[in-house]
Structures
1.
Amino acid sequence: MGEVVHTARIRIVQKQRPLREAYIEGFAEPLRFGVHGGYRSFYRVQSAEPLPATIDHLLAALAG
């Protein structure tokens, strides 16, 4: 069995839906999650500003 090389410490804060912020230990600024484009239409959500959805961050991480 291998050794643990890192433990991610992340705190998620739900703002006014659908806005969420992820505070990751070691980074000053939070990641902001929301909805945009087709997600807005599909979920029938109106938000003040278009932001990447959670799935966008996951896909970017997998593709990178």
Note: The radius of gyration is 14 Å.
2.
Amino acid sequence: MLFVKVLLIIIVVVVFLYLLLIMPRMWGRPAREAHLRVLYAHRGLFDNTSNAPENSMTAFRRAVEAGYGIELDVQTTKDGVPVVFHDFTLKRMARFPEGEAPTDAELNADGTPCVPGRICDYTWDELSRFHLLSTEERIPRFDEFLKLVNGRVPLIVELKIELKDLSVCRAASSLLDSYGGVYCVESFNPLGLFWYRRHRPEVMRGQLAENFRKSEGWNAPLYLALEFLLFNIFGRPDFIAYNHRHRSNLSRVLVTKVFGALSVAWTIRSEQELKDAKGDFAVFIFDSFVPAGGPRAI
């Protein structure tokens, strides 16, 4: 009998600690209404086979003109300039200006010379000469992007943070503090949310996550903890942006359905996926198609 009592106490304690770890912000939540009932174009309204590649000014302009919200990625250069670019490395999306590629450069799958290194290896002046894929588009500065949008559509700003370098939080917030439009921030790295919790508590913040074992094959304890939102204790997010294919994750369901955090789906890539996800999410990030009903087709 004593064993049963002890076991029950242990179970209750474990459940309590688990719920404490995954709990989102419960008090003083920012207003979320402006982020609802609008679809967000992932990295702009882009097409990497056209002259509007991802995270380009043309892709962002198209999204604004069509009335879609925008999800974008921000990281910093070697000299601390916040720029809009997804990958930490330049290989996939950046190309040398014509005639400037080194003769011994490694080649991409399409036969174009790879741009070596990472965003943080280059100053803004060095980075600004590269093209996005085969277009004339260049990597945008974050301040250029904000000037283009000018508050016309809501934004989801993803902060690209590796390990413990939180410089992008400071750099992005220095621009967003004077931005007059609706925006929120998100990151896979809970330390970024912790920074915003301490320094910009009035800003709506979100934890990005997915089943890393299924999508990336990563089984390390760190990624398992991220998958189950166990680092929410640090960031206390206002919303959970989760891979819509992994929507049944217990922690995601509890945080959104029980604790009331806003549920955001990424990345929807067809009309059918949008339809299937509507019962489980309130906000949707999409790419690879244009929703049939327009920016408010939810």
Note: Residues 2-22 form the longest helix (21 residues).
3.
Amino acid sequence: MEVIFILIIISLLVAGGFLIVFIFTVRSGQYEDTTTPSIRMLFDDERMIEEKEEEVRDNNEPAPREV
């Protein structure tokens, strides 16, 4: 019977810890932007393709001629 009381106390302490961490993260604004992360993954590929195209263009440009 004593073990049950110890387990209840430990579980309440763990739950309280999670509650404190949750409140801290909500107050710090971590959960404010819920839309952008789901949309960002759609545009990452396009940005990477554009960056690679720019690198290819930069590497393929001829050196300027000196006159």
Note: The mean pLDDT is 81.
